[in-house]
Amino acid sequence: MRTMTAAVLLASTIAARGETVDVKTAPSRIANVTVYLNSALITRDVAAPEGAGVMELVVTPLPPETVAHSLYSEGTDGIRVLNTRFRTRAIREDTREEVRKLEASIRQLVKAAQQIQADLAAANENLKLLGKMEGFTAATLQHLSDKGLLNSEASIALAKFVMTTRAERSREIVALQQSLEANKEQVEFAKRQLAELTAGVQRTERDAVIVIDKANAAAGSVRLNYLVGAVRWKPLYKLRAGRDRDPVGVEYLAAVQQQTGEDWTGVSVTLSTAQPMLNAAPPELKTLDVAALPISVPNPMAQAGGPGGAEGLRGKDAFKEIQQRANLNRQQFQSYANAFNWMEASRAANDAAALEQYGEIFCSQEEIRAARSELAESANDGPSVTYRLKSRLTIPSRSDDQTLEIARIDLAPDFYYKAVPVLTAHVYRQAALTNTSDLVLLPGEATMYLGADFVGRSELPLVAVGKKFIVGFGVDPQLQAQRVLVAKDRKTTGGNQVLTFDYQIRINSYKPEPVKMQVWDRMPRAEAQTIAVSLVSQKPELSGDALYLRDERPRNLLRWDITVQPGENGERARTIDYQFRMELDKQSQIGPVAAK
Asked: In what order do the strands lie in the sheet with 574-585?
């Protein structure tokens, strides 16, 4: 990372105090970084030089992604911060060392290309001259031959010279063309690197100007804080399982992508899911006007789509769309508030609330509840959490993700196997875990291992402290499941037709020890009352798990909890038999089938 310098520049006389601003020089360094989901708060320690009185510190350059209105400073003992402001200056060229090196490299390559092109042109001219010389020599030899004066040794030597020289010039031209092509590739690669480094960067430098008043003559420091964009992080996990009695190791990781244009070297890092808010007061609440209209008059609100331009107030997804638009307005409120645009921030917050209240007036309670539940589930909204990483870290500015470790956790597992033969013949190993740590586990991608062997990827849900959750550890090839339609019968009873289905599930185990297994299947479920579906018999009995009976059984999902013994395979395979019945009017037929 380049060390930023903070220079103290001469400023105008502070008229109110009648004091002249001193000129000093002081360094600064990044001390702390708080990384939010889509931004980061940078804290710099800026050294204030010796001397008392009013001083103006200029910290330069700030990174290109600095949020202009986010700067604020904090003084220490004996130092008061009078003002902190942001300014930009036009510059002729990018001052970053890596950018300047690439630009110098491109200039050298361009000069080398020009030299190669000149050499290539000279080689081609030499080859043309050789062709002219060959023509002149041939005419001379013909003239001498006609007069009987031809010298055979001189003719052979001249022919060898022409052939040798042509071969040398041809090799030289080919080598120069290859060098030119290689130079072109190097230039294109360097330009791509430069474009990546300077993407979105303008030829300006950004400064923070801090005006301080020092009561003591001794040197001190102030803290400069600012928000930057082009930063984001997401949680990742690695879960390692061993034997059944061994704990499952959970590596809680964070993938950080930072492209601020500023390296973070040896800094204290905090990861947060909170949203940085720089407004100290809430937005001003405005009146929500509403009017009554005769039924015969078209509702202008419904035609216009409601406040803020919401559309689609007809149908079951009406409130969902309203809520989505309200959420966008709340994001605008945050952006305006962080930019200290109080008027627009207040407007966006009131528009968001007006949209939600408008939807609550026009939509049914069921539509509102369903939409909010769906949006909350898809967004994986959880509590605001903060993780302070223990050691100081270096995170350079670059395009690829950088992985940090948040914590390592050992959790006691309850292993079992899960078979869903209606979907797949594979049987999966799973573990029931309880989050006994003091950390909330955020939703994120998980990489699963058995010992040192990679077994697959999964998605971890939001797991609160003390909550139970299930993770999978891949397919076990020593277990297989098969679902077979044994018999099907159709008959008419009274005015109804009755369809009866007999199924058998066969479990083959080639493992040397008993294993606990959940086996799942399903019967059709009819939402209308025109079809009756009933489970006639099952062997063994369905699971007695309370959560299953409450949540899954009403949806006609079937679950058996069994223990499969060694040697239960082939003709001795473990079997599950069940029968279900469907009844409907004999004048009706079964319509489309869909999995929901």
From this structure: 531-539, 574-585, 496-509, 468-493, 426-434, 414-419, 515-522, 557-564
Largest CA distance in the chain: 127
Residue 428, SS3 per DSSP: strand
Alpha carbon distance 130, 127 (integer Å) = 5
Q: What is the pTM of this model?
A: 0.69
pLDDT tens column, 137-151? 666 666 666 666 556
Convert the pLDDT of each residue in 277-319 to its tens digit. 766 678 888 888 887 767 666 655 554 455 544 444 445 577 8
SS (H, E, C) 364-427: CHHHHHHHHHHHHHHHCCCCCCEEECCCCEEECCCCCCEEEEEEEEEECCEEEEEECCCCCCEE
CA distances, 129 to each of 123, 132, 133, 136 (Å): 10, 5, 6, 11
Q: 75's torsion region: left (phi>0), alpha (psi -120 to 50) or beta?
A: beta
Which residues have a Cβ under 8 Å from the Cβ of 499 and sit 6 or more positions away? Answer: 488, 489, 490, 581, 582, 583
Tokens of 220: 């001190």
Q: Give the whole-angstrom CA distance, residue 329 versus residue 146.
A: 99
Which element (helix H / strand E) includes 225?
strand 220-228
pLDDT of 204 > 50? The answer is yes
